[in-house]
């Protein structure tokens, strides 16, 4: 068997998220069925972050195990990189596998990851998003102050319990290390958020954006935003920003010789006691 690492991009608008769901078009099902057609063997993908319906990706990562013989065809010639061109001919226009490489069995797209970086695009223009970028840009109904947006975002950075921002999932922790959270305006006036954490729980990024936007529009104050970290259940006061503005931009991994150790560390589920230390998380992420 050979383990393959895939770099993936997709426009999530017309997908019902990453995870396979009966009767729905999903990213995972589309990729698995196309890979199975090319390789002529069943394929099961493990992904770095299970994105929700409408969420995009430019740097999603997944892995799969396939028989080495599946690559020994005339068109592939044993070279995994040659799969990219073959797959491009069969995949729909809104999803692409951008690179394929053979890796050791220690690599795990989910558990080997050190951190994930999301990008969020948000416009407060009165006319809404520009038509050419409307599928990947969310809109906000009131003007947003950039300084207040960054101040609110900064107040949430660190190792914290983000229960107020996460939908409950049985057996999963809501303790995460939010490493970066900041904003800039691009040349078109669109606010672009950079959000980096070791992992994200379900709905976390969009809830973070909704909370800091409420401060930036003047409806909430900074103390309210920072005070959400004291909550131990999801807060009904936190608005959830639109899915279309969110994209998984990059997944960070350690050097190959550290993959196995990282896998074990990530599987250690955090508890409240870990807020004073630095232990691994459960690796669950998705929005």
Q: Secondary structure elements and their pairing?
A:
Blueprint: E1 2-10, H1 27-39, E2 46-47, E3 56-66, H2 83-90, E4 95-103, E5 115-123, E6 138-139, H3 146-154, E7 158-161, E8 175-185, E9 191-197, H4 204-216, H5 222-227, E10 246-252, H6 259-266
Parallel strand pairs: 3-10, 5-6
Antiparallel strand pairs: 1-3, 1-4, 2-3, 5-9, 5-10, 7-8, 8-9
Helix pairs in contact: 3-4
Characterise this structure.
By secondary structure, the protein is α+β, with helices and mostly antiparallel strands. The protein has 2 domains: 2-103, Alpha-Beta Plaits (2-Layer Sandwich); 115-254, Alpha-Beta Plaits. It has helices at residues 27-39, 83-90, 146-154, 204-216, 222-227, 259-266, and strands spanning 2-10, 46-47, 56-66, 95-103, 115-123, 138-139, 158-161, 175-185, 191-197, 246-252. A hairpin with an 8-residue loop joins β2 (46-47) and β3. The radius of gyration is 20 Å and the shape is globular. It starts with a strand and ends in a 21-residue tail after the last helix.
């Amino acid at each position: 068997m050979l383990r393959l690492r895939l770099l993936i991009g997709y426009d999530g608008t017309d997908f019902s998220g990453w995870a396979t769901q009966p009767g729905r078009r999903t990213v995972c099902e589309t990729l698995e069925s196309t890979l199975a057609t090319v390789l002529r063997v069943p394929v099961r993908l493990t992904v770095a972050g299970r994105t929700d319906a409408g969420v995009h990706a430019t740097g999603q990562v997944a892995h799969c195990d396939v028989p080495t013989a599946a690559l020994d065809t005339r068109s592939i010639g044993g070279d995994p990189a040659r799969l990219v061109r073959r797959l491009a001919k069969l995949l729909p226009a809104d999803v692409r596998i951008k690179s394929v490489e053979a890796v050791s069995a220690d690599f795990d797209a989910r558990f080997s990851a050190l951190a994930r970086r999301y990008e969020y695009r948000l416009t407060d223009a009165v006319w809404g998003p520009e038509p050419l970028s409307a599928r990947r840009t969310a809109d906000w109904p009131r003007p947003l102050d950039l300084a207040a947006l960054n101040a609110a975002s900064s107040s949430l950075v660190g190792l914290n319990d983000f229960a107020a921002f996460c939908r409950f999932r049985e057996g999963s922790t809501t303790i995460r290390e939010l490493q970066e959270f900041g904003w800039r305006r691009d040349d078109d006036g669109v606010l672009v958020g950079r959000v980096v954490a070791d992992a994200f729980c379900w709905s976390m990024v969009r809830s973070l954006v909704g909370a800091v936007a409420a401060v930036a529009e003047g409806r909430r104050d900074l103390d309210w935003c920072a005070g959400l970290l004291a909550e131990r259940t999801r807060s009904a006061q936190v608005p959830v920003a639109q899915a279309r503005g969110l994209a998984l931009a990059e997944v960070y991994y350690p050097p190959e010789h550290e993959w196995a150790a990282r896998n074990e560390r990530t599987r250690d589920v955090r508890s409240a006691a870990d807020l004073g230390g630095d232990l691994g998380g459960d690796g669950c992420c998705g929005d």
